[in-house]
Amino acid sequence: MSKTLAKPLPKHPLPPPAFLQLPDARLAYWTRGQQGTPVLLIMGFLVSGSAWAHQIPALARRHRVAWFDNRGCGLTESPSGFYSTAQLAADALRLMDHLGWERAHITGVSMGGMIAQELALQSLDRVRSLALIATHAGGIRNLLPPLGGIARFLHARLSGASRTATMARLLFPDPFLRHCDPAWLATTMERDFGTTRPLLQRLSQLAAVVRHRTHDRLSQLESLPILIVRPGQDLLVRPQASDTLARALPDAAVLDLPQAGHGVIRQCHRQLNAALLEHYAKADAAAAHGQQTGKPG
User: Fold this and answer.
1) How far apart are CA 143 and CA 139, in angstroms?
2) Class assignment of domain 10-293?
3) Against a cut of 0.90, is the pTM above it?
4) By the 8 A CB rule, do 260 and 268 touch?
5) Which of 17, 59, 63, 222 could form a disulfide with 28 if both were Cys (CB 3.0 to 4.6 A apart)?
6) Phi-psi region for residue 195, left (φ > 0), alpha (ψ -120 to 50) or beta?
7) What is the per-residue pLDDT for 149?
8) Domain-by-domain residue ranges, the chain?
């Protein structure tokens, strides 16, 4: 396992958040990059958008990038009630409207990938490309993590491990944990998982995951350039869920990362960032060709 994947990144301080007033909540968001086609990054369950820290600098060198805290998380307000991925997708679309982005490359990880699917299904014409990272299309089988993830969680909790230590063992395979920089790991885990969310907030977002169902509608997305990222050692979302997505979207490209865990955006950020930039570039080239030929791009 290469240690270069786990060393701290150069510091790129996040700008202060901006806020968008939704009908029922105030949404916190950030932007970086002054040129290139827009990229919208959508984070997963109960994690602030700042967890995209390993992607933002690389992507912003070529694109205008925006990321945000989903409702019920981080600096975004938490209206009462159970959320849905369709509702969270509507929030993301309102942010695109606010930024003046007619179309964007939509990239989501875990629950963020579920939201990204719903966003594309709601407004296909707003999506330049879709990247689905460590995610699934819903269904009972996908609600429970693999047995290895359940066993690791129970062992960590019974041993009295801290919440961040438990999450580290769920996000990263053992070989990676043995070789990564301890300071990097501690800083990363504290940033992304150091804050415990109130129970009602957790239940509100959990409802979105539980009720997520897109499999029967995915054929509507076949015209999009799509990248599916499959972490082979994922203990939270079954790797087979990526295979199911790929079967439902036969023209999608698949990035298979056999040694990666659910924390793939951190563990394999260099390889992932390169794949995302290539994916966006191909989609932009196809769109430009379509405009030149009069065909939809």
Assistant:
1) 7
2) alpha beta
3) yes
4) yes
5) 17
6) beta
7) 62
8) 10-293
